[in-house]
Write a structure and sequence with these properties.
Blueprint: H1 2-40, H2 46-62, H3 65-76, H4 82-110, H5 114-129
């Protein structure tokens, strides 16, 4: 049994690193940015922050996030080019949603909700660079 565990670890350790590394990076980015955002965000604007987080989850689900999961599975199997294909397919969705979000943030700022518009801008930037 110990030899079997060693063989499994040697065989799948590199492949599992490629599968889990984007999630690890996303966790570290969240752990670094969340305290900065929360320390500069007034308590009365916390509801707007929660709204933006929920909106970000919905929008990332609409950008075909399973394409990236399939690409990571292809990389773990040793197939070439799958991540670039997923990146170029998904970036189309992300750029459209991010540009719509930037336009909406401009209108929200003109409506007098400055904090919400800044959070929308941060969300649109985060959507583009967060290809999990």
């Amino acid at each position: 049994m110990p030899n079997f565990a060693k063989v499994l670890f040697k065989r799948y350790s590199v492949q599992s690193f490629f599968l889990s590394s984007p999630q690890i990076v996303a966790i570290f980015v969240s752990l670094l940015t969340l305290p900065i955002i929360l320390s500069n965000l007034p308590i009365e604007d916390y509801g707007q922050f929660q709204l933006i987080l929920a909106l970000q989850v919905w929008l990332s689900a609409l950008t075909a996030d399973r394409i990236s999961s399939g690409a990571k599975k292809g990389i773990a199997r040793g197939q070439d080019g799958t991540f670039l294909y997923a990146f170029f397919i998904r970036i189309k969705f992300l750029l459209v949603i991010a540009s719509i979000s930037l336009i909406v943030s401009f209108f929200v700022y003109n409506a007098g909700l400055g904090t919400l518009s800044i959070l929308l801008i941060i969300m649109s930037g985060f959507l583009v660079i967060y290809l999990k």
